[in-house]
Specification:
It is a single chain. The chain is about 55% helix and about 15% strand. By secondary structure, it is an alpha+beta fold. The chain folds into five domains: about 100 residues, no CATH class; about 150 residues, Beta-Lactamase, CATH 3.30.450.40; about 130 residues, Beta-Lactamase; about 150 residues, Alpha-Beta Plaits, CATH 3.30.70; about 90 residues, PucR C-terminal helix-turn-helix domain (Arc Repressor Mutant, subunit A), CATH 1.10.10. The protein is elongated. About 10% of the residues have low confidence.
């Protein structure tokens, strides 16, 4: 081949390269020359037409040397072509990296940023999937926080061991790691969980780079392909650079998140501070208003009106016993939780709570027990009026709107102002003074008062209490309970029943009109136990008449209460008389006649009216060991006669008279009746009743 032809072919190679022709065109040119092509121009013509020439003669050795030069030129030009292509791809990757850097510079929250990083990683390397995993502190695992391109189990939140796969190498060395085919690479430490994920996703090539900031690796960025792929050093370099950009962006996002949270907390704190200052100003203004009212010599009604105006509702102030002291709905006492007719014989004045309004009593008890305002089921608020541990009354508020925390504080402030007025002489009402007088009267009756009985009786009559009529003394001892709650209930109950109350050490003492101590004890027990929600032991004694007998009745009720506790009867109610022979022993006057009448009175009365012999038959029955046959033999009657008489006894005393405890009382009463008959006969005292064993 002539030298000028060789030069022309070399020029043709360069022209093909300059025109960015495919590499196979260079191979075609060399093959064309070896076949003996006439010239580069002809090749160009043939090349453009796509036709290939016929193989020509090989030529001499000089021509062979020219062919070798042409091939070396081709190889050099192809190498240059490859370098240009690599540089072009690198420039394209760097350009993409610059775009990613701009994208990551935007203010993202952390979750959004991680999604951007995984999406951009796939775009930069052209991989099928990308994800980011963060190590969990002190747990030995990494958790996937963001993923792009997954199809099955590799989802956000997946936890994987931090010492398997490429994770351990990247975290330990803070350097990139990659493999062309993960499952066949024997140098990788295996993890069953990670291998299952790789199989499920169909992954082969995997690369990982660290996300580091300040010399600490805090996450790992992955790129993976579903085909075998050898990552080039340029690709690993680009991914590493992306990791550096992503690490800085993640740190900025964390700072932004912390700053946002801090700003939110500071804003919330500022709002709360402003709200607290505003509430404090309102409280101060309201307190100044109440103070001015008190200093101007106002009464309870003005304070109640001010509170009602501030909260847009109605206010009622009640004494401890439920007496209405003032009501903003009506200057005079009006219908409501604290109104009712007074007991018979009471003097004119404000009215108190009814027995049918136990809900108001229960609400007041709860508020005093909690020592703070509490709402009721009907949207009424009840606030305790207290002076230390002293119960002064209750304030009932029906607001025109739901109460806020500030409203509750205003309500508490108003109750303290009411307490000041009630403790001052000018703030006391006639009803409040009557309550104090009633309490003082009961205390005088329970002590050796210096006041003469006539004066005590006069005071009682002025309060609507006739001590010439029978009364009972009832003591209630809660197993658990707040003293303030007991005071509220006892005051209300005594007022409703027209009696007196006293509370000491959480034990309520009541002086109630009536002659049935047992019924009074049960009534107190049945009302107080549910209200307190605890066991209440109630003991009663009486009836008592006159001011001088109240102390004796109180002592007997106290003994009854102590005896019930000793007998393990806590949580029940009984009177001294109901304790039978034990009550007889505990009574101050040892009322033998009352015990006999209560135990076997129906039997002795029947013997007296009908001239029967039931009492003697009953005593003989006990003396013969409970044998009707032996009793009939001793009485000289037929056994059927004894049986009929015992049946009549059961009708009079009840079938339980043969129970051991009841039988003991019946037998004791029979013996006492015989002893009483003997003693009275010796004194020559007249007697009408027949006694057991007396001849007809």
């Amino acid at each position: 081949m002539p030298r000028d032809h060789a030069k022309s072919y070399t020029t043709a190679v360069r022209e093909l390269l300059a025109g960015e022709a495919p590499a196979d065109r260079l191979e075609d040119l060399v093959a064309y020359v070896r076949r003996g092509g006439p010239g580069a121009g002809e090749y160009e013509h043939r090349g453009e037409s796509g036709q290939r020439g016929e193989c020509g003669p090989r030529g001499d050795e000089g021509q062979a040397g020219q062919y070798e030069q042409l091939e070396r030129a081709r190889d050099l030009e192809l190498s240059l072509y490859a370098q240009l292509g690599r540089r072009h791809r690198l420039e394209k990757g760097l350009s993409t990296l610059v775009d990613i850097a701009r994208d990551l510079a935007a203010p993202y929250d952390l979750a959004s940023l991680l999604k951007v990083v995984t999406r951009r990683t796939r775009t930069l390397l052209g991989t099928d999937m990308s994800f980011i995993a963060f190590p969990e502190e002190d747990e030995g695992v990494v958790r996937v926080r963001a993923c792009e391109g997954h199809t099955s189990t590799l989802t956000v939140g997946l936890r994987l061991p931090d010492d398997a796969g490429l994770v351990g190498d990247v975290l330990a060395g803070s350097a990139p790691a990659w493999t062309p085919d993960y499952l066949t690479d024997g140098s990788i430490r295996r993890s069953r969980a990670l291998d299952e994920v790789v199989r499920a996703e169909g992954l082969h090539a995997v690369s990982a780079v660290p996300l580091s900031y300040g010399g600490r690796t805090f996450a790992v960025l992955y790129a993976a392909d579903r085909k075998v792929r050898h990552f080039t050093t340029d690709e690993i370099s680009l991914m590493t650079s992306l990791g550096h950009l992503a690490a800085a962006a993640v740190e900025n996002a964390r700072v932004l998140d912390r700053s946002t949270a801090l700003v939110r907390r500071l804003s919330h704190t500022a709002d709360r501070t402003e709200s607290a200052l505003r509430e404090q100003r309102e409280l101060g203004a309201f307190q100044d208003r109440l103070t001015d009212l008190v200093l101007d010599g106002t009464d309870l009604h003005a304070v109640a009106v001010e509170l009602a105006r501030r909260l847009g509702g109605t206010v009622r102030v009640c004494a401890t016993d439920g007496t209405v002291l003032t009501d903003t709905a009506d200057r005079t006492p009006a219908a409501g939780p604290c109104r009712a007719d007074p007991p018979a014989g009471a003097d004119d004045g404000p009215r108190a709570a009814t027995t049918g309004d136990l809900a108001a009593v229960a609400a007041a008890m709860r508020a005093h027990g909690a020592a703070r305002p509490l709402p009721t089921d009907d949207d009424t608020w009840v606030a305790p009026i207290l002076a230390g541990d002293e119960v002064l009354g209750s304030l009932f508020l029906r607001p025109g709107r739901p109460l806020t925390g500030l409203d509750e504080r205003l309500l508490r402030l108003a109750t303290r102002c009411v307490a000041v007025l009630l403790l001052s002489r000018g703030g006391r009402s006639a009803a409040d003074d009557r309550g104090r007088v009633r309490d003082q009267l009961f205390d005088d009756l329970l002590t050796h008062s210096e006041h003469p009985p006539r004066r005590l009786e006069t005071t009682a009559l002025r309060l609507g209490i006739d001590m010439g009529q029978p009364h009972v003394v009832v003591l209630a001892r809660p197993q658990e309970g707040d003293r303030r709650r007991v005071v509220v209930w006892a005051a209300s109950y005594a007022r409703r029943k027209g009696g007196l109350k006293s509370v000491h050490d959480g034990e309520a003492a009541l002086l109630l009109p009536g002659a049935d101590a047992a019924a009074a004890a049960r009534a107190v027990h049945d009302e107080l136990s549910p209200l307190l929600g605890t066991a209440v032991t109630v003991g009663a004694a009486g009836p008592v008449t006159g001011t001088g007998s109240v102390l004796r009745g109180h002592r007997e009720a106290q003994r009854c209460l102590d005896a019930m506790s000793a007998l393990g009867a806590q949580g029940s109610a009984a009177s001294l008389r109901e304790l039978g022979f034990l009550g007889l022993l505990l009574a101050d006057d040892h009322d033998v006649d009352g015990f006999i009448d209560a135990t076997i009175g129906p039997v002795t009365d029947t013997d007296r009216r009908s001239s029967t012999d039931l009492a003697r038959t009953l005593e003989t029955y006990f003396d013969t060991g409970g044998s009707p046959t032996h009793a009939a033999r001793r009485l000289h009657v037929h056994p059927n006669t004894v049986a009929r008489r015992l049946k009549r006894v059961s009708e009079l005393l009840g079938a339980e008279w043969q129970n051991p405890e009841r039988a003991f009382e019946v037998r004791t009463a029979l013996r006492l009746a015989r002893i009483r008959h003997v003693l009275r006969a010796r004194r020559g005292a007249p007697h009408r009743e027949r006694v057991p064993g007396q001849d007809a």
